[in-house]
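ligand=4AD
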Amino acid sequence: MQHIDLKEIRSGDKYVSKKVTVCGWVRTSRDSKNVAFAELNDGSELLHTQVVFDKAVFDDDKALSSYLALGAALSVEGIVERGLKGDCNEIRAEKVELLGGCDTSYPLQKKRHSMEYLRTIPHLRVRSNTFNAVFRVRSELSHAIHEFFHKNGYYYVHSPIITGSDCEGAGEVFKVTTVGYDPTVKSEEEYNKKDFFGRSAGLTVSGQLEGEVMATALGKIYTFGPTFRAENSNTPRHAAEFWQVEPEVAFADIDDIIGIATDMIKSIIDSLLKNCGPELKFFDERFEPGLIAKLQHVVDSEFARVDYTDAIEILKKSGKTFVYPVEWGLDLQTEHERYLTDEYFKKPVFVVNYPRKIKSFYMKQNADGKTVAATDLLVPGVGEIIGCSEREADYDKLLKEIKERGMKLSDYANYLDLRKFGSVPHSGFGLGLERMLMYVTGMSNIRDVIEFPRTKDDLK
Ligand code: 4AD
Ligand code: MG
C-alpha cells in the first residue's frame, strides 16, 4: 500500500500543501457542526496527527460516523495543512477508505483505564498511549544496549535456550520434556533417560555459563535474550520469562566490571534521553513526576558503592521496622534494598562483597573466606537491576564449591575445564531488561513492561 508515515507529515515543511495518503487507527475523534476531527496514529510516533473532515465533502453521516469510531482503521487521502496550534500539521481529508471498522464494544474507550483492566486485554493495550510509549522505549532501550556493546568492541553471542545446568543453582529451572506420565517408570533417572535428550533438560535461567566459554576466546562478549525462572513469587518485579543482557569480560576484575556496568547504564540512559523525548515526557507527566530530571542526574553523577557489611549496619541503624530480619549473612530483601537506594543513598548503589553462602557457586571467593567478589546494583523505585561478579578462576576452589553445594559434577565438567586450560580473571553481570525499563519509565509493575507477561498462574 502506498502511504507515508504520519511522523514524516505531522511536523516539518516537507509535505505542507501536498496531497498525501496515510493510514492509521483513530485514537480520538470529535464531531461539530461543519467539520469533524479524528486523531490518527499509525505507530510511527507517540503523538497523533489530526485529520479534518469537511462535512460538505463527507455528507454521508453513516459513513462519517464509521470513520470517527474509536479504533477504526483508515486510509486517508488529503492535503497537508499547517495546524492552528504550534507547528503541528494536519490533514484535510478528501477521500477515505475504511480499512477496518470498529464497533462500540471496542474495549479501549476514551477514558483512563486502570492498569489492572488493561492487563486483561494484552492484545489491545498496546494501542493505548501508555503501552505504545512503553514498547517504543523498550525497543530504543534494546537498541541502545546493542549500540553500547558494539561501539566498545564486544561480540554479541547467542547462548542456548535449552540447557542442562542451573546457572544460579536456585532450583527455578522450567523442565523441558517430551515424556508424559508413565506409571511403569520407576525412578527419575529412568524417566530422564527416556526423555528427548536422554537426560534432564530445562529452559535457561541465565546465559552466563556459555557466555564465559565465549569470553575465553573472544575476550569481550555479551548475550541478550530471554531467560526463564519458575519463581514462585507473585511480586511486581518478578516474571517467569524476562530478558537479560549479560556481558562477560576476560581480564577484568570486580572493579573493572563495576566500571563497565556504570558506563553501560549511563550510556543507555543518555540514548533514551536523546531518542525518546516524547515518551519520557509522557511518563514524567503521567507516572513519575521528575522522571527526566532523575535520569539526567543518573547520567551526570557518580553511583554510590557500599560494602554489604556496611549496608547491614546502615539498615540496623535506620530506625526502621522491616518485615524481614537484618543480620549479617542473610540476603537483602526488597524492603532493605529499597531503603538503601530510595532513602539512604537516593541514587543507584552497588552493594559489594556479599556473604558467600547466599550467593551463586561461581563467584570469586574473597581472601576473608566468608565473602565473594559480587555486587548487585540497586536503583531507587525498583531495587536490584543488575547481578554482577568476578568469577572464580581457580579450579580447586570452584570444584570444592560445586561439591559442597551438592551439585551434579558432570553438568559442570566443561565449565570446570575452563579453569584448567588457560584460566584468566574474568567478570560479568546480568541486567534485567524489564527491571531497567521499569526504572526508566516509572512503571511500577513488571507486567506492564512486557506485552505478554508470564507470571505465576497467569499466561494469556
Ligand atoms: O542476579 P541474577 O540472578 O544474576 C544472574 O542470573 C547472573 N548469572 C548474571 C550474570 O552475571 N551474567 O539476575 C540478573 C538480573 C537481576 O538483577 C534482575 O534485574 C533480573 O536479572 N532478574 C529478573 N527480572 C525479572 N524477573 C525475574 N524473575 C528476575 N530474576 C532476575
Ligand atoms: Mg541477583
